[in-house]
Design goal:
It is built from seven helices and nine strands, in the order E-H-H-H-E-E-E-E-H-E-E-H-E-E-H-H. By secondary structure, the protein is of the alpha/beta class. The chain has two domains: about 45 residues; about 220 residues, Collagenase (Catalytic Domain) (3-Layer(aba) Sandwich). It starts with a strand and ends in a 48-residue tail after the last helix.
Length: about 300
């Protein structure tokens, strides 16, 4: 997102035992009195097993609330980090048929939050090489990918992930009006910069934005990605970090392209990527792409 102000006990069997006990006395002998209680116990076990199987086969409330797969707070202001209203879904993005995330990858192993540096030197390493142009016949925007020094993350790895996101057919190129190409030097249209919370705060703050150590932003030609969000995602994507990274990039690049914040278009519908999903879903389902698989824009009402 742009951080601008921008997931029965069985019935009592006492009566049955009394009836069975009476019948065994009429027949006489101790054996029936041992047999019938054993049969009753077996019946209880069968009934209990049936109830357990039935419960296991029915989806839980969390499963029925699961959404199709999302963003990060918008860069127009610091995103809230408090708990969302209780009536909002907390489901993770939906999985593909192969059981993986919507991006085709499995769940990510997240680091210990205490191990993530909160500040850095403010200097960056740029990913070498260049990528192929992706997108339609429209204008081509060039970009570089940079990672703050000393945070233990490879600039080429981040560049590969950003390239994959911007090349996705559900991304900003879906309308055929814009294309992207990563470069490693010379002039570029924008920069994707992964940095510690302190550095993000410093750079965004130069433009009057308060990112509060928590959220991302787009200022000038910089798409600033908060390291904490990149590694931990948010509560709605707690088990799906990789899809959430697509939301970060799509949201902040969307701001660079001139898109403002949007709201939820209606309960049960996918949340627009320009919605500040970190602040709550407001009845929408999580979603990390600006277009759906059929090339239709996922939008909502403009939010001032």
């Amino acid at each position: 997102m742009n951080e601008r102000r921008r997931p029965t006990p069985p019935p009592s069997s006492a009566a049955g035992r009394r009836r069975r006990g009476g019948r065994s006395r009429r027949r006489g002998g101790a054996r029936p009195r041992l047999l019938w209680p054993g049969l009753a116990a077996g019946t209880v076990l069968v009934l209990a097993g049936g109830l357990a199987l039935r419960g296991a086969s029915e989806p839980s409330g969390a499963d029925t609330a699961a959404s199709s797969a999302t963003e990060e707070p918008g860069s127009h202001g610091a995103g809230g980090t408090g708990a969302a209203p209780q009536d909002e879904p907390t489901a993770s993005p939906a999985k593909e048929k192969d059981g993986k995330g919507q991006d085709g990858k499995g769940r990510d192993e997240k680091p210990d939050p205490g191990s993530i540096p909160s500040s850095g030197p403010g200097t960056f390493a740029t990913a070498d090489g260049s990528g192929d142009r992706v997108g339609g016949s429209g204008r081509t925007l060039t970009y570089v990918v940079q990672v703050e020094d000393g945070i233990g993350i490879s600039a080429p790895d981040v560049a590969a992930e950003v390239e994959r996101i911007l090349a996705d057919e559900r991304g900003w190129t879906a309308d055929g009006k814009v294309g992207f190409r990563r470069v490693s030097g010379g002039a570029s249209d924008f920069r994707v910069r992964l940095a510690t919370a302190g550095t993000v705060d410093d750079i965004c703050g130069q433009y009057g934005l308060d990112t509060g150590g928590e959220v991302n932003c787009n200022v000038g030609q910089d798409v600033m990605v908060n390291l904490k969000r990149w590694l931990l995602a948010t509560r709605y994507y707690a088990d799906d970090v990789t899809p959430y990274r697509a939301l970060i990039i799509n949201h902040e690049v969307g701001h660079f392209l001139g898109h403002g914040h949007e709201g939820c278009p209606g309960a049960g519908r996918p949340a627009p990527v320009m919605m500040q999903q970190i602040k709550g879903l407001h009845g929408c389902r999580t979603n990390v792409w600006p277009y759906d698989a059929e090339g239709r824009a996922v939008t909502g009402p403009a939010v001032g």
